[in-house]
Amino acid sequence: MKKETRSLPMVALRGMVIMPGMVVHFDVSREKSVAAIQEAMVEEQKIFLTAQKEIETDNPKQEDVFPVGTVGTIKQIIKLPKRIVRVLVAGESRGILNSMEYEEPYLRAMVDVVDDSDITVPEDLNGEALIRGLKDMFVDYAAKNGKMSKEAVAQILEIKDLKKLVDEIAANIPLYYTDQQDILNETEFWKRYELLAFKLVNEVQIMDIKEEIQQKVKERVDKHQREYILREQLKLIREELGDDTTLSDAEEFEQAAQKLKAPKEIKEKLNKEISRFKSSLNSPAESGVIRTYIETILEMPWDKSVKDSNDIAYAEKVLEEEHYGLEQVKERILEFLAVRTLTKKGESPILCLVGPPGTGKTSIAKSLARALKKPYVRISLGGVRDEAEIRGHRKTYVGAMPGRIANGIRSAGVKNPLMLLDEIDKVSTDYKGDTFSALLEVLDSEQNSKFRDHYLEVPLDLSEVLFITTANTLQTIPRPLLDRMEVIEISSYTENEKLHIAVEHLIPKQMKKHGLSSEQLTISKHAIWKIARNYTKEAGVRQLEREIGNICRKTAKELLTTKKTKIAVTEKNIHKYLGKEKYIYQMANPAPEIGIVRGLAWTSVGGDTLQIEVNVMPGSGEIMLTGQLGDVMKESAQTGISYIRSVSRRYEIAEDFFEKHDIHVHIPEGAVPKDGPSAGITMATAMISAITGRKVWADLAMTGEVTLRGRVLAIGGLKEKLLAAKNAGIKTVLIPKENKADIEELSAEITRGLQIIPVENMDEVLDKALIAEHAGKEKKE
């Protein structure tokens, strides 16, 4: 391969590449290019042609053009109007741009003219194989492309010289100018051969894929066209037969839209979608989406409502029949009914029933729906973590559907049902959106009159829906959402309430479920009390119902396998049906002791008593806390010690006592984690008792938090704690003075038999709890 450097006029081409061996004409309009052609005609008619990198460039520099071009000979020039010159050029050899000599008045460049005439091509079988392979690829390309004339293809196939064949194919195939430039850039023949072969194969594959796609599109269009023609023929046949009873889907939708009672905005949206449905009949995928949407809109009860029952006496009767206790809930519901009757307004409060599991939160909502004679819809929110479950999916998504709220309204068939949002405290949040925030709009009476479901895309009025929500705890509900609800706490059932619930509801229900009659099975009241006390440990009655069901199953088996016709379950034989007792209440100690005080605790399954033991032993002033205590209880113990040290003179405690003794505070059942602020005064009393050696009354229990100065702070869960004290045989209970108002809300059944003493500071606590020597003797006598 030889190179000769020459100075030649240069023309920068836009969007085209001239290859060696090509004879092509092109139009020139730029003054520089016209001047370069005229200068070439004055010289030897030789000109250097190279392509611009960017078509839009008007005054190209050396960096704006490709470095490899073609040296050609101008064969003919024709002047056209508007200063346009048409040039006929024959490409001869490759040229490599070295530098630009000057750019005005025309482009002139120093070019290395590449002469590759000395390249030798093997004339053996290898050379023949290269020629035939390239010709086969070219024939395949020409057949797929269809733009090359048969004469041009035949002429190229006659070429037997491999070098000339490569140049002719590269010059004649209609590639994009950048692809042609890639071939032109290869000054080495064998690399050029490989690149040309790759381009041919690549273009053939692209055309195969294009042909396959076009064929599929054609088949689909033909199918849709055929379906359209058949539909039109079917419509014409129906018209000829006079079969007017069979309406098309679009006509049915139009008739349903006319009958629909809905706001103007919704009817306009519906009519627009029906028009889209008509125009999309040739596209089953799109028409299916629109059809589902229209059917959903038509099924929604936009202006359909049910008249609420204003009969307060009937509502009270229903609530009393189906639920025992729950006085606060019943009272609030009856108040709501009374206000609605007077105001005749449909706006409803949003009630949140909070309480332990099994206390009847879900069933009270069902009873309320029956009392109001409203449709009942229950939506379980436990574990819901996708915002679209509440607001719905955009209807453009595959499988889109309305949210649970809109679906609930649709299934109720009216716009003012009673909707229960169950387990609202168990809603979770993840990357798909904040579900709690989506519920804000639903449960806000100021916003929910224009609630927007993403699928419906039109406002949905939720202001007349009576929302009832249930939760086991308020801790996991965000404050903004909690603020929109009226919280009603449902506390634990007393044993007497459990007895009434079992007799009036649970036993009849389970006996009917197991096919038993009252003549076949009787369960005594004392047996039910024993089940509630020793076989279940819960705030509600769910486990109690399971145990009654267990008795019914064993009774059914016994009736069928023996000759008995009637079975009576009593306190004495209950172990035969339920086995040994599962829970035993820790009763009050038989006699006063030193360093042992009974505390009261609240748990998720009701109240419990907590025995705190303190021992004092010689040591170095260490304080040990055992029994799986949480951080709050540890802090309460430390606070109690600090208070005792501050009043040590009052109780005649030696100044060096805490330096020479260790104090060990222990709460039995160490495997059970314990935490909370209500054991402060209990631990402080137990420690003073152990330090001073004074006994504590055995039938006394206490609850309350203590401060460094000995003040007693308020606590929660008083009802459950008093029930636990009563079950343990406690006679006297010390409670914080700030909780005195809570006692007034408790029923006489809970407080009967208990001496409840409000205390304000530790002096009062110790005065009531510690036994003086003479007081102990007087009580003994």
UniProtKB/TrEMBL annotation:
Assigned EC number: 3.4.21.53
SMART domains, sorted: AAA (SM00382), LON (SM00464)
Enzyme class per UniProt: hydrolase
UniProt cross-references to InterPro entries, sorted A to Z: AAA+_ATPase, ATPase_AAA_core, Lon_bac, Lon_bac/euk-typ, Lon_lid, Lon_proteolytic, Lon_Prtase, Lon_prtase_N
Ranges where the Lon N-terminal domain occurs: 8-204
Annotated GO CC locations: cytoplasm
GO MF annotation, one: ATP hydrolysis activity
Regulation: induction: By heat shock.
Residues annotated as the enzyme's active site: 678, 721
Catalysis performed (reactions): Hydrolysis of proteins in presence of ATP
The Lon proteolytic domain, residue ranges: 591-772
Record: residues binding ATP: 355-362
GO biological process, one term: cellular response to heat
Alphabetically ordered keywords of this record: ATP-binding, Cytoplasm, Hydrolase, Nucleotide-binding, Protease, Serine protease, Stress response
Compartmental location: Cytoplasm
Pfam families tied to this protein: AAA, Lon_C, Lon_lid, LON_substr_bdg
Oligomeric and partner information: Homohexamer. Organized in a ring with a central cavity.
Family in the record: Belongs to the peptidase S16 family.
Protein task: ATP-dependent serine protease that mediates the selective degradation of mutant and abnormal proteins as well as certain short-lived regulatory proteins. Required for cellular homeostasis and for survival from DNA damage and developmental changes induced by stress. Degrades polypeptides processively to yield small peptide fragments that are 5 to 10 amino acids long. Binds to DNA in a double-stranded, site-specific manner.
Protein name, entry field: Lon protease
